[in-house]
Write a structure and sequence with these properties.
Structural class: mainly alpha
Radius of gyration: 31 Å
Helix content: 55-70%
Largest sheet: 6 strands, mixed
Strand content: under 5%
């Protein structure tokens, strides 16, 4: 349905309407005294939990000649929508000869509730064409659909129809109108409607105020939102939560916290807003602290709360906190549905426990594409190519069609394991068999795949054959490969492309400096360093997280601020000395400047992952696994040190960097030094 057709159809609202004979007959016939068979079947429809059950009931309804009853058909459509079977609901509607207000209302509501907004609006138009007059229960869901389509013209046309129907002052409809204007970006019209609302200063108009406050927050007008909040005749939890959420999403966590403390009665939404807000703004430790406080105060989390807390664990590698949440869920009757199950799988996979991730995956009910995607990604970033491929095939056998994200995961698995030919084959099948157009991320992985394998000329040819202009990430992938294989000429060419795209990105300068340092071209290293200083470019600081006894500790490169810094430094000196006796040689080429070898070794020793390792060794029981999360790619020297440390300490060290997991054990790494 085009925009002009929709507006034209809405003009029917301005004409006098009368119910057609068919619709009148259906209403009279179906909503009089209920015959006994209807009374029998309607509870059965409500009780159906699966689509096959509903199909069986539908068949019996037809056999008993009850498909002419609008009461029965209304309930069938409603249950189909609740079971997310919209096509089945539509097929029921099309086969019903007597559509009336009740049937249209339940279908429009079901379509809107399942984000089938165009279908909802088109059936509203059909309703008008059949001269079935909409009521106060029809319009809110049509308005919701128009908002979902972000169709300003259609929204204004519908507003005119509401006025013609005389429903503009109905509280339910008016709130929906204001909400629609807010969501289609016409806040001014929403404010005007609000100002014209005669009931706005009554206590029962709280929802109208909340919708407008939420709208102001979404467009970043927190001053207006706060003034509306202050002027409210009465507030409820939703009022507080709307304003808090506004400050959270605009990054003002201090103001959000101040309001949170003032809430007379905090509900689960209040807590969830704060937990999710801290996590989304990067303060994952505070998000987890807020989650534990919520439990201590006896508030039961909902699914979104749990997912937000697990996300915080995932970001900082807080496995122990994640396990504690998992235990809480198991002992408090939570179902491992697709939302919670997927979040748990992701948490375990990204916190380094891929075995537990696979166990939770098996237990998760109603796995969807995202659940499979998370599991396959988990195998990929742990370097488990065979398992990633196995789960990819299992997913297809389960009838789930792979999307672009699944192919990103399987291509990543190929890249990390060096399966070049299979990776290229998957890339081709993505386009030819599944008609999925590659994104820049897919192209970047192929460049990485070829580059890791030393096929630099093929990688460059691939970039030059791309149908779109390569971005910073594409050239960055080739740059990393040039450094690894010491191809200075191609590295210089690639660096020029990077600097043209993003002249202030520190990665280009750091990589080029490292390339020059590798071959001892110290004058060029110094030239790049001066260029960085002249252009005001600063290297991203490296930091690492490690969790000990449920407490997350963070370290930055050269960190001396930790309360146990002296002990950490002593332990690091001890590890380094022992490693040297075993043959470890600091790889000083990873240091940017031409300084004395001893100074270079000091610079390498201050890398954040080494500090986290030393802290882990002095803070955890002998033999226990050490898990570290690093925000950047681990350097070659730290990678080498971790191998020696795992052998000397007789521990497994699991390091997650920005690219993948490294499992160090008995002096070797799971990546096989192919990284």
């Amino acid at each position: 349905m085009s925009k002009s057709q929709g507006i034209k159809a809405l003009s029917a609202l301005f004409k006098p309407t009368a119910l057609p004979a068919k619709a009148t007959t259906a209403t009279t016939r179906s909503h009089g005294p209920s015959p006994s068979p209807e009374t029998h079947f309607i509870p059965l429809i409500h009780a159906s939990k699966t689509l096959p059950q509903l199909h069986q009931i539908h068949a019996q309804i037809i056999l008993h000649d009850l498909f002419t009853s609008s009461r029965v058909v209304t309930q069938l459509i409603s249950s189909s929508c609740l079971l997310k079977s919209l096509d089945y609901a539509l097929s029921i509607f099309r086969r019903f000869d007597l559509p009336n207000l009740f049937v249209f209302n339940v279908l429009i509501r079901g379509l809107a509730g399942n984000s089938r907004f165009e279908g909802s609006v088109s059936h509203f138009v059909l309703m008008l064409r059949l001269s079935v007059r909409p009521d106060r229960l029809t319009l809110p869901f049509v308005l919701k659909s128009v908002a979902g389509l972000a169709d300003v013209e259609l929204g204004r046309g519908l507003h005119g129809g509401v006025v013609k129907l005389g429903l503009e002052l109905d509280s339910f409809v008016r709130v929906s109108l204001v909400d629609m204007y807010v969501k289609i970006g016409e806040l001014g019209f929403g404010l005007q409607l609000f100002d014209e609302s005669p009931e706005r200063n009554k206590a029962e108009s709280i929802l109208l105020w909340n919708v407008l406050i939420n709208g102001c927050c979404k467009v970043g007008d927190l001053s207006k939102a706060a003034s509306l909040f202050a002027a409210m005749p009465q507030r409820n939890a939703g009022s507080w939560n709307s304003l808090i959420n506004g400050f959270v999403w605009n990054g003002d966590l201090n103001r959000a916290r101040e309001l949170f403390v003032q809430i007379p009665e905090k509900n689960v939404v209040s807590w969830t807003t704060m937990i999710n807000g801290f996590s989304q703004n990067g303060d994952h430790e505070e998000a987890l602290s807020m989650f534990w406080r919520m439990l201590e105060e006896g508030v039961r989390p909902n699914d979104l709360t749990v997912v937000s807390a697990l996300l915080a664990c995932t970001k900082i590698g807080a496995l122990q906190a994640g396990e504690r949440i998992h235990n809480y869920l198991s002992t408090n009757g939570f179902q491992f549905n697709r939302g919670i199950g997927t979040a748990l799988v992701d948490m375990y996979a990204k916190c380094g426990d891929i075995k537990s991730a696979s166990q939770v995956f098996v237990q998760t009910k109603g796995k969807d594409l995202l659940t499979w995607s998370v599991m396959i990604w988990g195998w990929a970033i742990h370097g488990c190519f065979d398992q990633a491929l196995q789960y990819f095939e299992k997913m297809k056998s389960a009838g789930i069609k792979p999307d672009e994200v699944i192919f990103l995961a399987i291509l990543t698995a190929c890249s990390h394991s060096g399966n070049v030919d299979q990776g290229l084959s998957f890339f081709e099948s993505m386009r030819l068999e599944y008609s999925i157009e590659p994104t820049m991320k897919h192209y970047a992985i192929i460049v990485d795949l070829l580059g890791r394998a030393g096929r630099l000329d093929d990688a460059l040819s691939f970039i030059q054959s791309m149908p779109t202009n390569p971005d910073f990430v594409i050239w960055g992938a080739l740059f990393c490969a040039c450094r690894a294989h010491k191809n200075i000429k191609m590295a210089e060419f690639t660096a020029q492309q990077l600097l043209q795209l993003e002249p202030k990105h520190p990665g280009s300068y750091v990589f080029l400096s490292n390339v020059y340092a590798t071959v001892g071209r110290w004058e060029d290293v110094e030239r790049v360093r001066i260029l960085m200083k002249t252009r005001g470019v600063e290297k991203d600081p490296g930091w690492s997280y490690i969790e000990v006894e449920g407490q997350v500790h963070s370290f930055v490169a050269g960190d001396q601020a930790h309360e146990r810094a002296d002990e950490v430094n002593l332990k690091l000196e001890e590890i380094t000395a022992s490693a040297k006796q075993e043959g470890y040689m600091p790889e000083t080429a990873w240091v940017l400047h031409n300084i004395e070898e001893e100074e270079k070794e000091d610079a390498l020793g201050s890398h954040s992952e080494k500090l986290a390792l030393a802290f882990g060794l002095i803070s955890t029981a002998p033999g226990s696994t050490i898990r570290i999360v690093k925000n950047l790619r681990v350097c070659g020297d730290c990678h080498s040190m971790m191998k020696y440390a795992s052998k000397l300490s007789r521990r497994e060290i699991i390091l997650r960097d920005i690219k993948r997991f490294h499992h160090f054990k008995d002096g070797t790494c799971s990546c096989g030094d192919y990284w």
